[in-house]
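Handoff note, outgoing to incoming analyst
You'll be picking up this chain. Sequence as last confirmed:
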Amino acid sequence: MGKRWSSVSPFIQKLRTAPPDWYYKAPKSPPPVDFLAPPTGPYFFYGTLVDPSMITEILGLDYEPELRPAYIVGYECKLWGQYPALLDAPDSIVEGAVYHVSTVEDGEKLAAYETRNYRTERCWINYMDKKEPLREIGSTFKFVGDRGDLSEGQFDLKVWLKRMGRTAALEKLEGKVKKTT
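Most recent structure output, in case you need it:
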């Protein structure tokens, strides 16, 4: 009698007899990523969040954050009621301020404040204070609501603060403006 041929390939037979640690194993599984979670890092604000006291209240901070003056290119603002709505607009510039969001929880709080009519979008942030970095990728809140609800106009933080009865924030803002002029 001759040799019997197995229906199992020699490669599979070899794998079956290999020691358990012979296979490649990744050193560690990567942590799960929530792609819907708000990003952390620099956020460009152009409306009510340019007021540091608003950020303090929304995030429950025990200090008032320092914001960096900045601008983004390729966007414009229209008005959604009394609030600014950021839209795509080639060759346009929007000025505002940047705050560094350090946790996903803080990003979620800011997104809740902005409502479902806005979503985070990545953007190039250009700083105006001549400190490093001069430019970096960050996030901003772009309007995604009904464009039919928008009107032409400019958001004025001082007017908004006055309407909302936020006199302390208004006085602080006016004090900063007087110092810089």
